[in-house]
Design goal:
AtzG-like, about 90 residues, DUF4089 domain-containing protein, extended, mainly alpha
């Protein structure tokens, strides 16, 4: 039986604590609302997990791109769609 890991909203913003909680078995414990995206923390944690050795000089441009991508994703995610809209089965040009 998995032991439930008690977490706070602040814990969800800390990638190291998120990874530790995941390893401890709290894989399905999702916060009510997602924490704000932190591109600096994401890049710092994701690079080693992906096996990437990133030169520190490149971290600022990488996190700048992640901020742009996050802003674009937020526009898409926040676009209101009526419940009756169905996904297209395929797209044709």
């Amino acid at each position: 039986m998995r032991r439930a890991v008690e977490r706070t909203r602040h814990d969800a913003c800390n990638p190291e604590q998120e990874l530790a909680a995941w390893k401890a078995g709290a894989r399905n414990a999702m916060p009510e609302t997602p924490p704000p995206f932190d591109p600096d923390a994401y890049a710092a944690v994701a690079a080693p997990l992906l096996g990437l050795d990133i030169d520190p000089a490149w971290m600022q441009p990488i996190t700048a791109n992640l901020r742009v991508l996050a802003a674009a994703a937020e526009l898409v995610a926040d676009f209101p769609l009526p419940d009756a809209v169905e996904a297209a089965p395929r797209f044709e040009a």
